[in-house]
Design a protein that fits this description.
It contains two helices and no strands. By secondary structure, the chain is mostly helical. The radius of gyration is 60 Å and the shape is rod-shaped.
């Protein structure tokens, strides 16, 4: 398009507007180009939707597995609590057994002390018996000549 030559370097307002419109028309895509871009965008959107559906399915499966794992963990916690209760009872029984064993040891020590005293008395009795035997032997020795004479 040719523009009227008025003043050099100066265009009329209408000529400037016309040039601006022509520039815009050259940069605006055609309807075919816009449709092609729209179809490509739709194809990409469909692929994105398919990926999102797969991701949702995977998330649902993961949620199901997580729920099962939580159920198993709860059962494991219940078993652990029971095991702890049994262990506490076993500890209480062990403590009672230790107390009984300590009492038995104390009784055994007392019995040992009594046995030692009994042994000491028996030794004294043996010593007295030996002395009595010696006296009896002397008495027998004295008595024998008397009987003969």
């Amino acid at each position: 398009m040719s523009y009227p030559a008025g003043r050099p370097g100066k265009l009329s307002l209408s000529d400037q507007l016309l040039m601006t419109l022509e520039k815009r028309e050259s940069t605006v895509p055609t309807s075919k180009q816009a449709n092609a871009v729209t179809q490509q965008a739709n194809a990409v959107a469909q692929q994105a939707n398919a990926v999102a559906q797969q991701a949702n399915a995977s998330a649902q499966q993961a949620n199901a597995v997580t729920q099962q794992a939580n159920a198993v963990a709860q059962q494991a916690n219940a078993v652990a609590q029971q095991a702890n209760a049994v262990a506490q009872q076993a500890n209480a029984v062990a403590q009672q057994a230790n107390a009984v064993a300590q009492q038995a040891n104390a009784v055994a020590q007392q019995a040992n002390a009594v046995a030692q005293q009994a042994n000491a008395v028996a030794q004294q009795a043996n010593a007295v018996a030996q002395q009595a035997n010696a006296v009896a032997q002397q008495a027998n020795a004295v008595a024998q000549p008397i009987r003969l004479g």
